[in-house]
Every structure is written in C-alpha cells, then in structure tokens.
Amino acid sequence: MTTTTLWLLALLVCGTGAAPRQLDTTCTPLTCAVILCLRPDCPPPSVLVTGGDPCGCCPACAQQVGEGALCDRTVTTDSKHPSKNSIRVCRFSPDSSHIVSGSDDNTICMWEVATKKLIRSFSGHEESVVALAYSPDNNYLVSGSTYGDLHVWDACFGHGRYLFLEVEGHDLGVTCCEFSPTYGSARNPQSGIANFLLATSGKDNLIKLWIFTAPVGSADVVLKCHNTLPGHSDTVTSCAFNPSGTILASGSLDKTVRLWDPVRGIPLFTIDAHNRFVSCCAFSLDGRLLATGSIDRTVKIWKLTDTSHIMEGLMGYEAPEEDVKPTSSANPVCAMENWTVDDVVAWLATFGLEQYQDRFRENIIDGSELLALTSSDLETILGVAPLGHRNKILRNREVSKMQMVPKSEAKEIKLPDLSSHDELLCPITREIMKDPVIAADGYTYDRSAIQAWLESGKDRSPMTNTVLDHRSLTPNRTLKMVIERFLEQMK
C-alpha cells in the first residue's frame, strides 16, 4: 500500500474490485474548492463497499466472493457468509462491537467483532440486500434491497422477524441508507422515545428522508416518509451526512454530487466535476472535507466550511455539458464507408487525437480503410503506440457506426462519446456488453467473449496475463442495469 503523508485525513478507498487503500491526504490553503484528486492504482476487482469502524481501528470490506474481511494492521480474518453468495454491503455498529453484512442471498448476517463469529442472521427480503444502517443508539438496524423495500430489525435482542416493513421504499431498488448523527434522540439519547432522521437513496433518482420513531425498549417502530428530494437525473448511488447533520451529500450515476439541507429538505449546491458515475461520498470526521469517488478512477477531496463558502468556492466546478466539436470538413455522419480521408482526419479531432492526423493522411485512410483497421494495424502501421489511444479510436469507430444517418438528414447531432463510458465495453471485444460477468481475475467481460476465451483453451487472464484460479463467472447485475439505461438513452 502506497501512502503519501500530507495531512491528518485518512481515506479508505475502494475501486470497482480494488483492494481497500488508505490514502493520507492534505488540506491546501484554498478556501473552498477541490483540493486534491487521487488516482490510485487498481488491482484486480473484489471490493464492493466498505463500512468503517467508528473507532477507526478496523476497516471492513464487502467482497464478491461471499466473504467479509475484518482487518487490522497485523491480522486479516475472513468471515464467510453461510451461502457464500456475493456480499453487497457491510457496516459496523456504532459501538464497534458488531458488524453486519447484506448479501445476494437476501439475508443479513451479524458477526461479533471480538470473537469474529457469526451470531445472528436476519431473513425477510426477497432480493439482494444492498443497504444497511445502524440507528445512532445501537438498538435498531435498517436494511434496503434491490426490490425497493426497507426493513427495520432489532439489533440488540435478535428478534428474527423484522419490526417494520416499508414495501414502497424506492421504485426499482434501494441503493443506500444513512441515519443523521444529530437529529432528535441522536443528540439527546435520554428521551423516552427513539426519534431519528433516516436518509435513503434509490434507483428512482430520489433521496427520501424518513422520520424513525419507537418507544425505548419497544418493538413498536414507525418509519414515515418526511420529505423527498428530487434533482438527480439518474440512480442515486450513495448518500452521507456530515458529522453535525446539517449537510447531506449524495452521489449519482448522473456524474454529479449534490449537497442538501436535510432538516429543511432543500438543495444547497451541485458539484459537477467527475467524468463518470459517482459511486460514493464521505465526510471527514471534522466535517470540513468531503471525499467523492467515481468510476473515472479518481477520488476528489473538497474543502467545506459553511454553506455560503460552498456556493462560492465550488462554482467553478459546475461546468456545463459540452457539445461534440463541429468539424470543418465533410460531415462525418454519413455512412462511414463513404468517408473521405479528410472526413477521417476531421473525425480524429472530435475526440482529441489530432496528433495522428498526419499519419492517417499519409497512409490514405478513408472510411473503408478505417472500418478494416485492427489494434495491431494502428500500432504497427499508423504508429499509435499507447493502448489507450488505440482503444479510443476503435471505440469511437463503433459508436460512429451505430449513429450513421443518411447524408441528406445529417444536421447538428450529438454523438455519444464512449470515452467516458469505458466500463460498459468488454475488454476483449471493445463492444458494449450484453451480459456482463465477473471472471476469476476480478474484471468484467461479456459472457460470450470470456466463455469463448476459456473454451479456446486459454487459462490466463485477458487483462493481467495471470493464471485464472477458476472458471466460474458471476453476473455483474449493477453494471447490466447501467448498460440497459445507457442503451435506452441512446434510442
């Protein structure tokens, strides 16, 4: 693990299938803005979600191999889910004595941290459990599933049946749930009634705020929707309260992070700084820093003070959506096989690879030749050495082929640039995946492509060239949902 010591903030970073990494980062003299952008190396995928220990001693990892990992500086313990299905989420209890995990087997398991033994399991969901949150008083557990329902459980005495069920939590599925650390009895635990504020997010593009009430020591729990926060244009993947409970942050597949006032239920600001889907967000313990993680493989750290400073300092990062650059030569939206050399050269400029224009011109690469190019041709004949540049050319060629219209109908249109959606493409075929699956190397491939690879007798990873431990393929349901949405938007 590589660490650069710059200040007193420690982040536990998990990429799509990356092992957790602790990154020491810094706060610069900037008043309010993004102060650091981290791009850690990504080892083979395994980790989905982490839930940090409140005391800061023991990180927890949820993996796609049916195991939860309890780690300290010297010891790592794997706690296996009984069904060995993928674990989608794990969280520590507020007192750090227990850890709970939700799985694709529709159950929740609770382990005792001291003994690292499974002590309880909860059943009741009909689909994968993907969201968990302990109440601030340590007595209750809320869970959400891909079915869209919310369950409330007794976290202390182990009543097997749920205490409350909200069937219509979120259409299409719940993605995250978090309790406010200061609302109601979270601030005054001496009151006779447990009274909390719960935030949930879902695939319906919404954040919902719920009032949680229960007499202390009673199983009579009520969860009532208090407010709905619209604003995101795609699935809300995560939400997090700052330590004072005055700001709620949310991240979404629409590539934005939004800040809300959870008490008044109003939006504060939108951060538009990531190139791809925002997968997670978290506040520092002092509430002055916000970290946002994305599938663009970066973690951005934002310095926050009060709302007025947030509005002022982050304004420069709310960039409008850019149109595809127009080309000065013949319109490249006619049939690709009819493109001239000038059309091809102008097309290269639309996605920022102007440096290869002369080589394409010298080799007289017109539309028909472009259609026949392979990655090897690009490297050996046209001198496109970087693999990323070769993939970008081939990827944009496929996009342009899908978007061809008759020249007579060619007006101002926007071509979707898959350079910001590389995660949708199979690493083998470089085409949009129809049935994404996770192989033993942790990478996601289209099922037909990786099966053909294995059936040809190859036993090494197409990405890392290391020997594959097994041939099992696990469906990547989340990515399949993202691909389906992307294709719907292209229609």
Automatic annotation (TrEMBL):
Residues 419-491 form the U-box domain. It comes from Pomacea canaliculata. WD repeats lie at residues 80-121, 122-154, 229-261, 271-312. Pfam families: SAM_1, U-box, WD40. One of its GO terms (molecular function) is ubiquitin-protein transferase activity. GO terms for biological process: protein ubiquitination. InterPro entries: SAM (IPR001660), SAM/pointed_sf (IPR013761), Ubox_domain (IPR003613), WD-SAM-U-box (IPR052085), WD40/YVTN_repeat-like_dom_sf (IPR015943), WD40_PAC1 (IPR020472), WD40_repeat_CS (IPR019775), WD40_repeat_dom_sf (IPR036322). The keyword Membrane does not apply. This is WD repeat, SAM and U-box domain-containing protein 1. Transmembrane segments: none annotated.
